[in-house]
């Protein structure tokens, strides 16, 4: 059944229908998210999973991030395609770090993930990996070498900055601590979640490697994923620290916001 689905996407009509349907669904999810905030991470209350199942943080992070590269690699294997293209390498670098390295630096005191959040983020990452693989295999956007190098450098720089802020958060808990602290290092004075800011920029520039329709859907998916995570983290900070947490911070983008004194 899954093979038939992938084969159907090989036709221009089938893939365009998939893109259009996915855009409508993702657009609806973005609107829904603003009406009904998503419980995830710091904002999640233990024992409140809608599906009555929780997954330890490290395992959850691995599961969520492996769905995209898994389908990506499967499609390249299925259609016997060469992985040695610039976007393929960049994409796999990002997710190799996310799946293999980063989870093990997260605190053992991090809250578990409700199963529904794992299913949600795994699904969106799965679709992102699928459309990216299809775009690269069938009709990769042609870019000059200079532009590819420029996009790659921006991508890697943003990935580094996103990771740097991630590891800063991981380092906030001292040995024996199980609570949370207010992050107050450089970019955290501008936005609540600079690690998501840089990842959003990272994927924005990455999108220029692929065609327009796929690019728009890819951007929407990444915006949905990161905005949910940012709003969830910010809501949790406000709940945990009340008036101590700066109210003027934006979630992801520092546009029209000045630095906040901590």
TrEMBL record:
Its main location: membrane. Residues 142-257 form the 3-oxo-5-alpha-steroid 4-dehydrogenase C-terminal domain. The chain crosses the membrane at residues 18-38, 59-77, 89-105, 117-137, 143-164, 185-210. PROSITE patterns: S5A_REDUCTASE (PS50244). GO terms for biological process: lipid metabolic process. Pfam families: Steroid_dh (PF02544). Keywords: Membrane, Transmembrane, Transmembrane helix. It is found in: Membrane. Signal peptide: none annotated. The keyword Zinc does not apply. It is a multi-pass membrane protein. GO terms for cellular component: membrane. Belongs to the steroid 5-alpha reductase family. PANTHER family: 3-OXO-5-ALPHA-STEROID 4-DEHYDROGENASE, STEROID 5-ALPHA-REDUCTASE DET2. This is 3-oxo-5-alpha-steroid 4-dehydrogenase family protein. It comes from Tritrichomonas foetus.
């Amino acid at each position: 059944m899954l093979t038939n689905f992938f084969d159907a996407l090989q036709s221009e009509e089938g893939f365009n229908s998939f893109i259009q349907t996915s855009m409508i669904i993702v657009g609806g999810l973005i609107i829904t998210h603003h009406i009904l905030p998503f419980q995830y991470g710091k904002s999640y209350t233990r024992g409140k999973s809608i599906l009555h199942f929780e997954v330890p943080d490290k395992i959850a992070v691995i599961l969520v991030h492996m769905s995209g590269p898994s389908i990506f690699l499967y499609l390249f294997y299925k259609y016997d395609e060469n992985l040695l293209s610039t976007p393929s390498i960049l994409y796999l670098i990002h997710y190799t770090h996310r799946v293999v390295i980063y989870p093990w630096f997260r605190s053992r005191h991090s809250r578990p993930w409700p199963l529904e959040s794992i299913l949600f983020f795994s699904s969106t990452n799965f679709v992102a990996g699928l459309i990216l693989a299809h775009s690269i295999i069938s009709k990769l956007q042609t870019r000059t070498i200079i532009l590819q190098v420029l996009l790659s450098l921006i991508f890697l720089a943003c990935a580094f900055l996103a990771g740097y802020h991630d590891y800063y958060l991981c380092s906030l808990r001292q040995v024996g601590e199980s609570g949370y602290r207010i992050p107050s290092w450089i970019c955290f004075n501008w936005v609540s979640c600079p690690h998501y800011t840089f990842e959003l920029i990272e994927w924005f520039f990455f999108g220029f490697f692929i065609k327009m329709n796929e690019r728009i859907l890819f951007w929407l998916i990444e915006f949905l994923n990161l905005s949910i995570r940012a709003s969830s983290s910010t809501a949790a900070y406000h709940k945990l620290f009340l008036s101590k947490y700066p109210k003027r911070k934006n979630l992801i983008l520092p546009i029209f916001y000045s630095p906040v004194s901590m």
